[in-house]
Write a structure and sequence with these properties.
CATH architecture of one domain: Up-down Bundle
Number of strands: 16
Structural class: alpha+beta
CATH topology of one domain: Methane Monooxygenase Hydroxylase, Chain G, domain 1
Helix content: 25-40%
Largest sheet: 4 strands, antiparallel
Strand content: 15-25%
Radius of gyration: 22 Å
Number of helices: 12
Oligomer: single chain
């Protein structure tokens, strides 16, 4: 690997790159191809950035910021018009071709064996034959998503939805219109483009969209500058905030404190900006309280009866080796699981997975036995 060239592409000095290799850059030799990944953001390089053995770089997909006061943020952030896409509820992947093989990178920069098998079945090879430098940024969604299972999308298993285009060795992205043009050209699914609005009317129109999406159990929206001049912003529905909290309080000791606080704070700001009536606010408060208390009580009662607190998910694979590799991938990510024997299904295999939520299990049992908080 030519370190000088890699450092130049990263925008840092060669000596700084060598220093980072001793601190936050981690090597991964499995699955192939070999790569280096940035475990954390440093020197202006995003976490999840990957340097492949051939010297090509896939920069980490930047985190999208979130406004709490929608109208004020739109006025401050955007210069003219606002394009609005649906925010998909799944796991973020970057799909690219390395040495002629399609691979799917997680947000953290790992090659996920399961996501890679899905990508190879969903993405036509001609995309990368014609555009070898292209990186497809998108979301894997569906009920057989082992990270974030969701049954609201029109698939019985899992699908890939494109929401952005990037290039190897570059931080730039192609923007909303080029993304949808490429999706249409190659028959790819893409995040729904819900409209393009003037800056002056965008906040009210987005509010209407978010309320409608919330009623459908969908997550929210991503707001983009049509000319790609400023970074995108995201905004979610109250239904999503409560749904997130419901999952988090079921496994309360396995989530960071900020996860809980940020979603509760979003509810307060949204209620104020939308000028809710006392009745509307009480309804919101009831939904928020139920999303906190009910799953937490259920977890405590299950532990009290001697049950293990677990998450059950499933995947469908064409090759059993993919399942074995995915089991190892979860283990190296610190996730303890039990994979049940494969069930032959329509030319492939259905794999049922039990994810062990050890921290919440241990903490709940200790508290039930009289330990202090």
């Amino acid at each position: 690997m030519n370190l000088a060239r890699v450092a130049q592409r990263l925008g840092i000095t060669e000596s700084r790159l060598q220093c980072l290799q001793e601190t936050i850059i981690r090597e991964s030799a499995w699955p192939e191809p070999r790569l280096l990944r940035f475990e954390k953001e440093s020197s202006g390089v995003e976490a999840g950035t990957v340097i492949f053995e051939n010297g090509e770089i896939a920069f980490g997909y930047p985190k999208i910021r979130r406004p709490l006061m929608l109208a004020a943020a739109i006025e401050r952030h955007f210069s003219n018009r606002v394009a609005v896409e649906e925010k998909m509820n799944g796991h973020n992947v970057r799909i690219l071709s390395i040495n002629g093989e399609i691979v799917a990178l997680t947000r953290g920069g790992f090659i996920c064996p399961y996501s890679t098998e899905v990508a190879r079945s969903k993405i036509p090879e001609e995309v990368f034959e014609k555009h070898p430098q292209r990186i497809l940024c998108g979301e894997m969604v569906g009920p057989e998503n082992p990270y974030v299972a969701s049954s609201i999308y029109p698939t019985e298993s899992i699908d890939f939805y494109l929401f952005d285009l990037a290039e190897k060795n570059s931080r730039t992205t192609s923007g909303v219109h080029r993304t949808h043009e490429l999706a249409e050209e190659y028959g790819l699914l893409s995040a729904a483009l819900l409209g393009e609005f003037s800056k002056e009317t965008a906040a009210e129109r987005i509010k209407e969209i978010v309320i409608k999406l919330g009623r459908q159990g969908r997550e929210g929206v991503v707001m983009k500058d049509p000319e790609n001049e400023v970074p995108p912003l995201k905004y979610t529905s109250s239904k999503t905030n409560c749904s997130d909290l419901s999952v988090a309080f079921r496994y309360y000791n396995d989530y960071a404190l900020d996860f809980f606080v940020s979603r509760a704070v979003r509810e307060g700001f949204q209620s104020v900006e939308w000028k809710e009536s006392e009745e509307e606010r009480r309804k919101r408060a009831l939904s928020l309280g139920e999303s906190i208390l009910l799953p937490l009580v259920d977890t405590i009662k299950r532990a009290q009866m001697g049950e293990n607190i677990v998450q059950k998910v499933q995947i469908r694979v064409k090759n059993l080796q993919t399942a074995r590799d995915f089991e190892y991938h979860l283990r190296r990510s610190g996730i303890r699981t039990i994979f049940e024997p494969p069930e032959p299904d329509d030319g492939g295999y259905l794999i049922r997975i039990t994810k062990l939520v050890m921290s919440t299990n241990d903490k709940t049992q200790a508290l039930l036995n009289g330990e202090m908080w």
